[in-house]
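In these records, each integer encodes one residue's backbone shape. Here is one protein:

___
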Amino acid sequence: LHAPLNRQNFKSGEMRGRLESFYVNMSALERAGDTSGQLGPVPHFVRALHFFNAGQYAAAERDLNVAHDNALQELGQPNLAWYGPATVDEIRLDLKKLLEDAAYHLGIINYNSGQYERARGWFSTACKHNSLDFRSRIYIPELLFFEMVPFDEIVREFASVENELNAVPVQNRNRMTQNWDEAVASLKIREGNCYLPKLVPLGWRAALAGYENAHLAAKAYIVAVKSSDKIGALGGRRPLTSSFARFSLAQALERL
């Protein structure tokens, strides 16, 4: 549980190697005999990250579901033999983090495969595990757009997320799953994308085409640019969202 794994570094070169080694060892253990009841949620979660890196999303999803279900059961009465010298309180804190991260990764897998309603459900679950998980929260209004719900509902959901971000006390923002300004930028890019006039008209989104508005798209992208630039101004590395925001703003201005 205390391995230095997070949502960013599990894709790094060094971590990929460690995850692959773990996958090899765990799979060998399973081939050696029945491991049911012998493996807790953590091994399945760790192996799922290897599958994710390898592009084996169905296998990753299976392990993440097992990890999430087992972690929920473990919260009540953890099997101490699975967690080394950690105390019960430490175990429960780590299990809650695992639940949140497993739900997030399940959301990403379903988002990438076009299973938008399932993705939204998992991102919502991640937010229930951690109300400061805005890395998950910002996907939800965009997914409503993909699901073709009434546009006024989409607008309200974007506004709700923005209000929730603004309501996070400054002293709590370092507990968020991503930088606060980067979360704002990511949210506004998604909002702008919903308004941006699409060059290729597609029948499936015809019902929302009447809401396309280059001016509102540009307005959202400008906020995204300013928010992402704040990170660099404070001495941090300018996030990738800064480039996305600028490119998107250029697209919107071209269509004014």
In short: The chain has a mean pLDDT of 92. DSSP finds twelve helices and no strands in the chain. The longest helix spans residues 88-112. The radius of gyration is 20 Å.
